[in-house]
Design goal:
The chain contains five helices and 18 strands. It is an alpha+beta fold and 365 residues long.
Length: 365
């Protein structure tokens, strides 16, 4: 049985600190006996991040100048935090006004609750609007930047945490409604899309619950191009499922696997009695996007200018319509796994055992 007389232990243990091995054994004994350094616990990891930069341009088809006629046509940024507890935020970040454009300001939506397991996070939204001439006609270009960041908390039974960040911007075309942004163009418009450099997926993906990194299956970026008959100013209504007469002309989804191979999925909509839709400008976009990401570690190295376009024209007596482009970023991660702390008695026993090893080490010197 170990003799715990203080003097005898000191005479045997203190000479050990003259060697590296002795120092290691002594420190291990102290830490195991007291747990004071807190090394029994969770894995250490940094924040999980993703960002997307894109641009879309509205070009008139029929020689009709796009003049701004609404006095207040807002653009909203929204963020949903699926943390514990969950919260949602929405902010008006831009507005068209009569004759001129008021360039929007960026906004950061931060998680402001006390999260049950210590998770924190935020989403940045930035939008800029530019008008310029194209073949003697005015067109508008909108550039957005969306970035999401999650710093996962710790949990003995890790749960998923996620952020859904979106920009919602329905623009109506009508000659009679005071709520329409633009005058009616009977030939419709073409919408051109560019994916800009520094678009990046997370650099690390989790392989199982509790691991550091993003969850590949639940991390993606999506953009939808929608048209619907009538003047619709409420973003929630315009982007709702089952909106009467609405056509999702193009939907692009980008997703990365754990090896940073990015896949592009494109879905196109069909013409209806209200709109003649032309999606021929989407051909080749999938190969171009995936090729640009190939070997780049999940980060787009350069801008893909006008990587695809979609065009539509009203028909069947439609005299006003609303269009919109909705970029959304979904980022998900696991809470970090925590190893339950051993009881104080067990820690003390482990510390005494390590001291015994130190004493035996001293007798062999």
């Amino acid at each position: 049985m170990l003799n715990c007389n203080g003097g005898r232990i000191a005479r045997r243990v203190l000479p050990l600190v003259s060697t590296a091995a002795g120092w290691a054994l002594l420190v291990a004994a102290i830490v195991a006996g007291t747990g004071s350094l807190g090394l029994m616990g969770s894995a250490l990891a940094g924040p999980v991040t993703a960002q997307v930069n894109s641009r879309w341009t509205i070009v008139p088809n029929g020689g009709v100048d796009l003049y701004v006629r609404a006095t207040d046509a807002p653009v909203f940024a929204s963020t949903k935090f699926a943390f514990h507890p969950a919260i949602a935020k929405s902010t008006k970040i831009g507005v068209f006004t009569l004759i001129e454009l008021v360039n929007p300001q960026g906004v950061r939506h931060e998680y402001t609750k006390t999260e049950d397991h210590g998770t924190t996070g935020y989403a940045d939204h930035d939008l800029s609007i530019e008008s310029f001439d194209f073949a003697g006609l005015r067109k508008y270009s909108l550039r957005d930047h969306v970035e999401a960041v999650i710093s996962p908390g710790k949990n003995e039974q890790p749960q998923k945490v996620s952020i859904h960040a979106a920009i919602d911007d329905p623009f109506a075309f009508s000659n009679t409604s005071a709520d329409a942004v633009f005058g009616f163009d009977p030939a419709g418009v073409t919408m051109q899309f560019s994916l800009e450099e520094l678009t990046a997926f997370p650099g690390l993906f989790a392989t199982s619950p509790g691991d550091a990194g993003a969850i590949a299956d639940d991390t993606q970026w999506t953009v939808r191009f929608r048209v619907a008959p009538g003047v619709i100013t409420d973003p929630e209504t315009f982007w709702s499922d089952g909106l009467s007469g609405a056509i999702d002309m193009v939907t692009l989804k980008l997703q990365s696997d754990a090896a940073s191979h990015v896949t592009a999925t494109l879905a196109t909509g069909a013409s209806s009695g209200d709109f003649l839709v032309d999606t021929s400008g989407v051909a080749g976009a999938k190969a171009a996007i995936e090729g640009a990401f190939d070997g780049a570690g999940g980060q787009l190295p350069g801008t893909l200018e006008d990587v695809f376009s979609v065009s539509f024209a009203p028909q069947g007596g439609v005299t006003e319509y609303t269009i919109g482009v909705q970029p959304t970023l979904d980022l998900a991660a696991w809470e970090l796994a925590v190893v339950p702390e051993p009881s104080s008695a067990a820690m003390a026993a482990l510390g005494m055992a390590l001291i015994a090893v130190a004493l035996r080490f001293g007798r062999t010197r």
